[in-house]
Amino acid sequence: MTEPTAPAGRPLRRAVLATAIGNFIEWFDFSIYGFLAPVIATRFFPHENGTAALLSTFAVFGLAFVARPVGAVVFGRMGDRLGRKRTLALIVLLMSGSTALIGVLPTYDSVGLLAPLLLLALRLLQGFSAGGEFAGASIMIVESAPQARRGLYTSALSTATFLASATGVALTALLTQGIGVDAMQAWGWRVVFLIALPAGLVGLYLRFRVEETPDFKQLEQRAEVRRAPIREALDTQRKPITTLFLLIMINAVAFYVLGTYWPTFLTTHAGIDRVTALWSSAAAYGVLIACAPLHGHLADRFGRKPMLVYATVGFGVLAIPAFLISAQGGFWFAFLGQSLFALMAGAFSPASSLIVSELFPPHVRYSASAIGYNLSYLLFGGTAPYMSEFLINSTHSTYAPAIYITAIAVVSALAAVFLLPETSPLKRRRAPSAEPATVLPTTAR
Description:
By secondary structure, this protein is mainly α. 80% of the residues lie in helices and 0% in strands. Helix 9 (150-179) runs antiparallel to helix 15. The longest helix has 32 residues, at 238-269.
């Protein structure tokens, strides 16, 4: 029985480029809400209590994650039945459309309580779309790349994700600096959301041009496409789904604390002006972008498990010092604190992109990975900004979010050490006795 051959040359580059750019657009659209949280609080919620309005804004941010497991089920099933290519094309269209619509919503001053309700509806549609994105994008690259360089190629996905957030925060900073805080609150915030529509059309075009992955083509040729991949994933993949859920906990918290909450923390609790806080966050994303290819290469060289153990332990050790340093005030302290945190996030992301795909067999890969990944993001990613602000206001300690992150890191570190098998096909080939029965290798290249 022949194995599928990985695309090379132009087809492989096109697959990586289309997936990475589409992923950039997807996460740019989803994350700009967090960067604009202080503005959204004044536009869509009552103004009498600033803290309550900010908490309400982060609550709507978190509620969007309720729709992510629903999107995971719908798009996971679609990806395992109809293919990775068409599913990812639909996802980027839904995300860009819902994001652009936020840019034309009426405000609380115009329509009262209808404004936050409409905002919530569109955030739920964004969350539904996001439920299928990261797992599908990871699968597209892993199934298209040669085994020996999966980590390096998949790092393009991490780079795109970080670059999306960096672009969002930098664009917000540029607009705020260029037109002023008052104009930003009046109309400038709409510009950031409306950019999503033309960007989404570019992503749609690129994703339609990419080839279907070799693994899915082989499933079709062998008539092994499942009619009920969700049910089969839940019946046969419970242990790896649980392992993925526990591992992704720290990634979910770290990503949305660093990218969504940290600028608000700097302005609200560290006395740093808004523009400086935004530029500090953009610079921290520069650290992530620079490190992603290196960490992807290291995941190829040493395996996925060592990188994830290193990153989770690092989160536990460095979270409190990172917050302590950034709270000292000024750009350089803020940047240094965020960069310490970013180094661990940069190590975790490429390896986690790989295990999202490699933990599961091809016929239920999209369904199983999307479920585990998005349930973790529902409970820990969407709630991270709200929990951070709530803990500070409840304990009156600016370091409460760091303690929370440390606790989550301990759980993920234990999962990495005791539950996670080494999923690298090359490492498993060298140590076949270490490969658990629940982990099925992807097709050879």
